[in-house]
Amino acid sequence: MKISVIGTGYVGLVTGTCLAETGNEVICVDIDEQKVQRMRKGEVPIYEPHLDILFERNIKAGRLKFSTSLSEGLDHGEIIFLALPTPENGDGAADLSYVLGVAEEIGNLITDYKVIVDKSTVPVGTADKVKKVIAESAKCEFDVVSNPEFLREGFAVDDFLKPERIIIGSSSEKATELMKKLYKPFVRSGNPIIVMDERSAELTKYAANSFLAAKITFMNEIANYCEKVGADVDQVRKGMGTDSRIGKRFLFPGIGYGGSCFPKDVKALQKAGREKGYDFKMLDAIIKVNKNQKTILLPKIREYFNNDLKGKTFALWGLSFKPETDDIREAPSLAIIDHLLIEGAKINAYDPEAMTNVERLLGNKINFGSSMYDVLQDADALIICTEWSIFRTPDFRRIKDRLINNVIFDGRNVYDLQDVEKEGISYFSIGRKD
Ligand code: UGA
Description:
- By secondary structure, the chain is an alpha/beta fold.
- It has three domains: 2-196, Rossmann fold (3-Layer(aba) Sandwich); 205-293, Orthogonal Bundle (N-(1-d-carboxylethyl)-l-norvaline Dehydrogenase, domain 2); 298-428, Rossmann fold (3-Layer(aba) Sandwich), CATH 3.40.50.
- The protein has helices at 10-21, 33-40, 51-60, 70-76, 97-109, 126-137, 156-161, 173-183, 198-229, 233-241, 262-275, 281-293, 298-304, 332-342, 355-362, 396-402, 417-422; strands at residues 2-6, 25-29, 64-67, 79-82, 114-118, 142-146, 166-169, 193-196, 313-317, 346-350, 367-368, 381-384, 407-410, 426-428.
- Strand 10 (346-350), helix 15 and strand 11 form a beta-alpha-beta unit.
- The longest helix has 32 residues, at 198-229.
């Protein structure tokens, strides 16, 4: 099939590339000329495992092309994916100006039937708005479909190629059939394509992300309480997670959720609720608890150093909001760094992928090391903010040799308590015995 993807951010790029992988002819459109030039040469503008291999393969095969011309994209595709940014505006709502701006141009430019697909996370009612804007100037038939994306950063290619479900919000049979045809190769395993109305599809995305944020946040509160009563959250998590009604996943406590999705979507749903006179009390609590959770290690650090962090140096492992990404949006590491700097501490940080992004943001306010062991040299303590695999089985001897105090503050419960204890290292983690 002929597909166009408007917007080559994270979702657009993964969507375009994976759709080319199943034999579709895809054109990805972006207004950023330099980015388009780079992509034409095979350069992947984001860090996402395995995307580079698919990217190169499909460009070489001529199935994946790039353009700065919206009209070229609209001429080419029978299905047009909108994968445009929907940033949080000043008051927590989703800013739809990019989506509606492109919708207006689509209305002016299309000359034959198109299915326009909202792929970005957009508030309930957006498909109707897009429809209305296009209809104002369109001279041909078209349909608008909501098809929310459930990709996780770091696993995006796998999630796209083997989705647990596809959600299609559509009130047109013709559009639904085309979408089903497009996604058929991805659900051969028998996973469902669930068709519903546009508004329900739009809400499904917010509800899923907010629920997952709630699940994590609940476990974070249980972890905090475990510390008060001498219970071990790892045991509690296992005990709870084996109940299939609860499930094992997304029960890992830590220093809070971050990234470009959960924080934005929880706030947007809360805001959208208020606009309709509905007060999501649970969402308020999630936002509040998560904000506090990001700095939950600080009281432990302060206590260890007798409330005097001035002049202390901290080695910090992990800057990205989670492993396998260079994304630092809403990363808990940034909240910790902020506080430590205010209290006069110095930071030597290491992250396998995210250092460039943090340097861009913080300049020389913190130091960066070339390896995880490098940053430990003469540091007073080690803080772990992200559970990158490389941190999982460290050489504890090298840690002890370099640190001034044998102490680790771990925001992601990376190690077994006994393993660290055996090494004679003081270990503070989340919801477990210190
Ligand atoms: C999330 C959803 O998982 C995807 O389904 C969705 O498509 C995506 O948002 C989106 O809306 O685009 P993502 O933000 O990439 O994906 O990351 P997750 O793997 O879900 O992790 C989010 C945050 O929760 C991370 O900060 C992670 O460290 C934290 N987390 C996750 C925990 O603290 N505990 C857990 O048990 C799981």
